Amino acid sequence: MIRWWISSFQLAELFISSVVHLLYGFYVYSTAVAADLSQALSECVFKSNVSLEVKKQDPSKSTVDDLPPIVLVHGIFGFGKGKFGSFSYFGGAEKKDERVLVPDLGSLTSIYDRARELFYYLKGGRVDYGEQHSKTCGHSRFGRIYEQAHYPQWDEDHPIHFVGHSAGAQVVRVLQQMLADKAFEGYENTSENWVLSIAALSGAFNGTTRTYLDGMLPEDGQNMKPLCLLQLCRLGVIIYDWLDIPLLKAYYNFGFDHFNLSWRKAGLWGLVDCLLGNAGPWATGDWILPDLTIQGSIKLNSNLQTFPNTFYFSYATKRTRKILGVTVPSGILGIHPMLFIRVLQMSLYRYPTDVPPPYKGYRDEDWQDNDGALNTISMTHPRLPIEHPSCSIVNDSDCQPLQPGIWYYKIVEADHIFFILNRERAGVQFDLMYDNIFERCRKHIFRKTSQTLPNEAP
């Protein structure tokens, strides 16, 4: 009887979670479509006026191309410029600076694959996932072609600022390690110094217990439960990619094109194989959820360094508080409806006692504070399997002048999507957050060797 009640509760929770996520996805999609239709209508009505406009180059802005670009890297289920029409993943934050790039990477592809895509987005050319990795993970070695590089001069003398949200922060760290390891064929001169700074917004550095709530098995952090939210997501993605409807794929793409899931290449039997879990990224584990488990993050982090010439900053978000020693959501109105249930579940989560803990010294109480998607302890700085140099601050000014090679982190009262998608929801905090990030990139971060103080000889 007790088991029946537990199973009924789990099915009810799965149904509610599925409906909430589906409705929110539909809301974002419909909002983007509505905005594009409105813009198209306006352009059509006022076409005659627009055609008379003559845009002149402002000579005062001729040095914009000389600025190091600030690259905004989206997280899971995210999208970059060119997808979802005029809808912005970063809530329009890219308009705050004249030299900002917003790449569109695979929204569910692995951290490794996304790091490779980000490199070729900036340098141009055809995405090369690497021969060995591609064979191991069962996909094509080469991906999309970037005919026009977004920053072709990128090198040690022309480094870049990166701002990553959620899994996007880990993507940038993997990319920097690849640069240090000279992992890109044909580019033997890469180094970690191609990255000037990394700012993480709710960065997924050490994994999250939410992956286990959504369906990843805590035993290994690689496989999924037979019935869970992630299984439903997997089925939906397979069907979406197999149908391969050009209009839909142009509007939003999960990023699995290099797995050849389309009906044109996979055929009917290929679809059946994917649905049964015998083929595709879910069969080889080459997708993003295994990277977001605690075990997967430890595996990634074991090969990642914090480099002495790069500046690091992290904003860790939290929507919980303690009442009589119990961690609970910090409110109802301040947490997005899609995340409220997860904030509660994550604050109450207990790692199964019948399986080995994800690392020696793991304690449930350390992982209870969260923002509905990630645990706050995971977002401050890389700490597993070894802790990287870090410094907690309250105000951004506390860390001036900045020192490279240290993770400065600040805990912010916000949920996981507070500073993306909906600018109005965050209000003044949105502007304060991104203004601080962009100002730091432009005014406070520089390589000491390239700087000369006023009235001082080089």
UniProtKB/TrEMBL annotation:
**Which biological process, per GO, is one annotated for this protein?**
lipid metabolic process
Q: Which domain of life is it from?
A: Eukaryota
Looking at the record, the residues that make up the Lipase-like C-terminal domain are 69-184
Q: Which residues form a coiled coil?
A: none
Origin organism is: Gossypium mustelinum (Cotton)
Tell me where it resides: Secreted
Which SUPFAM superfamilies does the entry mention? alpha/beta-Hydrolases
Q: Which GO terms describe its cellular component?
A: extracellular region
Protein name in UniProt: Lipase-like C-terminal domain-containing protein
* Record has Lipoprotein as a keyword: no
PANTHER family (alphabetical): ALPHA/BETA-HYDROLASES SUPERFAMILY PROTEIN, ALPHA_BETA-HYDROLASES SUPERFAMILY PROTEIN
One Pfam family here:
Lip_C
User: Could you state a single Gene Ontology molecular function term?
Assistant: hydrolase activity
UniProt keywords, alphabetically: Hydrolase, Lipid metabolism, Secreted, Signal
The answer, when asked if Signal is one of the entry's keywords, is yes
InterPro entries xref list: AB_hydrolase_fold, Lip-like_C
